[in-house]
Every structure is written in structure tokens, then in C-alpha cells.
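Write out a record, focusing on structure:
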Amino acid sequence: MTSSYRAPLRDMRFVIDEWLNAETVWRGVPDWADLDSATAMQILEEAARFVGEQVAPLNGSGDLEGCRFEGGNVTMPAGFRDSYRAYVDGGWPALAISTDAGGQGLPQLLEVALHEMLAAANHAWLMSPGLTHGASACLRAHGAERLKVRYLSKIASGEWLTTMCLTEPQAGTDLGLLRAKAVPDADFRNDIGDAFRISGSKIFISGGDHDLTDNIVHLVLARLPDAPAGTRGLSLFLVPKWIDETGSAEPVRNGVYCEGIEKKMGLKASPTCTMQFEHALGWLIGEPHRGLAAMFVMMNAARLQVAMQGVAHAESAWQRAAAYACERTQMRAVAAPADYTGDPAQPAPIVLHPALRRILFDLRCVVEGERAIGFWIGQWLDIAAHHPDEIERAKAERFASLLTPVAKAFFTANGFDAASNALQVFGGYGYIHEYGIEQSVRDSRVSMLYEGTNQIQAIDLLVRKTIGDRGEKLRELLVHIRGEARECERAGTAHAEVASAARTLEVLCTDAWQITGKILEQSTHDKELPYRVADDYLAMIGWLLLAYAWARTLRIAEGAGKDDTFYAEKRATACYFFDYRIAGFEHCKRLVDAGCRAGLPFLSLALANGH
């Protein structure tokens, strides 16, 4: 029994149309003035059809078959190449890429929804085309004109896929330790411009080699001969697998090779490669020694996509667990709804058992609340990039900057927990590959690690984004959330649950600001403090965002005429969140408070070494 993925189009439409009121935002952007909700939903409906027919069926088979590495080449699982060609032919890679780069120029919000569908249906499949948008944005923003003419349209269309080559064996989080070298090659000539020779090794490169496209374009961090030490000495280079050399009728193989692929816990249908660059030809992107600034364009786009992988795994887990719980009968129900027609003396569907209903409601709280926040960040990114008003663009940039690390860490941690908790619904069957949920557990774990581990995201949020500006961006966010609390308070005159949510939201904002003030004050004389509480602080802000999402959802769902099943379920889930799951905020706040009061002991070197 394997549950097939169904894109949650009804909930996506609710978030886009009612929660975000996206059509109003689009009308304020000249390029999107003609885009309406009906057109956006037609796009997502077609995306759901493509994902359901072309991508989802390959998830289980791809996991079992995996990738093959033979003779220096990687072969993808059966069906992957054909489905990827259909993806390119359908124009999906170019959905939100700017028109001047060869894309369709649609809002990134729609691409966020598309990538959630792809990750939920087949996370490993998404790994290869997942960097297309970020790579295109990076090249468009920082590439020389002749470089863009040669490569940008082929990347944007998906004809050629890209990689992001950062990590080396000795340099993971600390990119300042990178050793890959780049030296000018004054002898090479073609019509692009000055060339460089890149040498060094890179590890953990997703899609470093495959047979999906005829060429692969690597974006590589390396050091020029005059580079200063540390991250300030890194430059970014475009290094294709195949190059067009002057005087050659056919493309020539560049000096970049895959030396092997990793045997991994999950994502077995995505090749994670060790790459060797042997005097490979490359071209500089951006300014010398400013490679990280150029690559951050790519990394920031990738981090929201990774956050939505957490939502995707939670959605997939929820769908599988809910379907199984309605089918599986065991034991008699302790209680049953009034409309239950089964024999109370016979085994009942396990969805009626309170312990499992708790799990299912937990899953639904997480996935639907996080979807709203993830789409909200996508909208902020759209406003930051396209709004005609400079002040609105700057505000949106501040919000996106603050919210992205929270989403990446909080959503992916919850995605893994959701998959694990959903497996519990299946009992022993969940441990069997046939039911699909054990693959979700394995595949979801890596999202907490790549694009900056969740601990790095927490440090980014607290140390750089909050302490760095003395809490100014957080204060602005809290003002925005309190605005929703006031809206709920006004609506609460007719709806007691909405009024209660408004009061809760106000209390959470006050608590978040007070604990932040304590950190700001005490960290001036306790330098370790922000680093030991950062994880719990980020999770606390994550629960605050979910409270904001569900308060707003409850207010909308309680509106006039919203009495159908969809809105009734929204109200029930929102009430469950404020009855049960809101305790997550207080739990994290107490941990942060404990970290403000007490330091961490050090392990002795003998204990750390196992003696």
C-alpha cells in the first residue's frame, strides 16, 4: 500500500487568495498588473497535474534503484531523464526567472508553491533542478555581459543544469578554510573573456554529475593568487563541464570530473558527488575576492526552497498518515463522533483513537501554518525585488532577511519530526518500505543540514539579524504581528475564539520582546550566551510565527459565509493549535531563559575522546 501524493491546491488557494491577498500585491507591480488569482491557480493546477503524473510515480522506484556511478559517469534512475525533459518542455524551470534572463517573470510566490509540490512528491528528483532559479539570479546580477549571453538563457530554461560548489573536506561551515585555487590563463582565447584555471576538490556536490542534461554548469568558490586569507579572499567562477573552444567544431570536455558518489541515508536518487577540478577553465562572476557576495544571491533563494522542503515532507507525511488512519481498523473506539455509523462493538478506524488524532492534528497544525508563513516570505521576496516603491522594497528585504533563517531551521526540523511522528501512526508497517513513510523519514533529515545547518541559521537570526541591529528588525516584525492581533480583537466581538487568539498573540509578542531584551543586555558581558540559546530562541520565534499564521487563519475562517467543511476544519485546527501546540512557545522561552541564567559545562578532553 503506497499513498500517492495529491497537491494541496485548496489550501494553497486559501493562502494565496485570502491569507496573502496576493492579487492586490500583484496589481501594484507593473509587470504583474494583469496577473489574477484565476490565472495563478490555473498555473498551479497544471503544475499539480505534471507533478502527479511525471514526478511522484518515480519516488519509491528511484529510492530503490538509486544512482549508478560507472566509468566516471553518473546515471540517474529509470524515468528521471524523461520526466526532467518534460519539465523543461513545460517551461517550469523558468517560471519565476526574469524575462530579460529568458524566464517567464512570474512571482516567486508561485515558484515556492511549485517547489513544495515537487519536494513533497519526490525530494530527490527536485535536487537536480532546484538551483536553477538561484543560479540564474546570481549570473544575471553579477555576470559579465558576454558570460550571460553564452550561459544565462540555457540555465534559465533548464537546458543546462547547475551546481553550487562550496564545501571541501576541511571547509564546511567555515568557508574561510577553502583551498581551491584559480590562476589566470592568458593563453586561452574564446569570445567570452579572460579565463582562469581552477584546481581543487569539492565534496557533497548535489548533481555534480548526471545524465539529465548535455552540460552541467558549476559555480565554484576558489582563491586567486593574490587572495587575502579567510572568506574575504574567495572569488566565484563559472566552470562548465563542456566548453566551446575557438576553432573546435564540437564542445570540448573541461577539466572537471566526478570521482564518486556518496552512499547516503536518504535521497538515494540524487547523486551527491565528490568533484575534482584539474586546471578546469572558468570565468569570473562578479568582482575578485567578492565571491561570497555574489553567491549569497544563490544561497538566499535556496534557503527558502529548503524551508519549503520541510513543509513538503510534513504535507506528504500528513497525507499518508491520515489516509492510513482512516483505513486501518484496530480495537474499539473510546469515543466516536455523532455521525459515526460503524458498530461500536467492532474494531474501529484508528483515526478515532485519541492518541492518533493528536498526532494527526499536530501534523496538520504544522504543515498548514508553515505553508502560510513560507508563502508569506515568498511574497516578501517578490515585493523586495519588484515593488515600484523603494521604501516598500527595503521593508520587504528586512522582513525576508529576518524570516528566512527561521523558516529554514524551524520548518525542516518540524518536517523531520512530522515524518517520524507520522510513521508512528502506521505502527510496524511504517518501518516497511512499501508504505513509503520510512523513506520520508530518511529523505527529510538532510534538509536540517545543507544550505547552512540549523544551528548556523539560529546564530544568523540571533547574533547577526537581532543582536546585530539591537532588535530593530524584530521590533518591526512584532509591530506587524500586533497589527493582526488588533484585527483579531475587532473580529473577536462576535467570535470568542478569535478574541482569545488575539490576546494570546499580544502576550507572545510581549514575551518575545522581553526575552530578546534580556539577551541584548546580558550578552554584552556573557559572549557565549547568544550562541547557547540561539537554537531555542529561533524555535521560540518559529512558534510565534505559527501563532500569527493560525490567528490570521482563524479570523478569516470565522468570517461571514465561511460555513463549509474547509473553513470548519480550519477553525478546528486553529482552536487545536491554541489549545495544545501553542505550548511550544512557552517551552522554548523557558529554555532561553534558562540559558540566560546558567552557562554550559565543558566536557573534559578525556571524556570527549572516549576515555
The longest helix spans residues 291-327. The radius of gyration is 25 Å. Residues 9-136 form a domain with the Butyryl-Coa Dehydrogenase, subunit A; domain 1 fold (CATH 1.10.540.10). DSSP finds 19 helices and 13 strands in the chain.
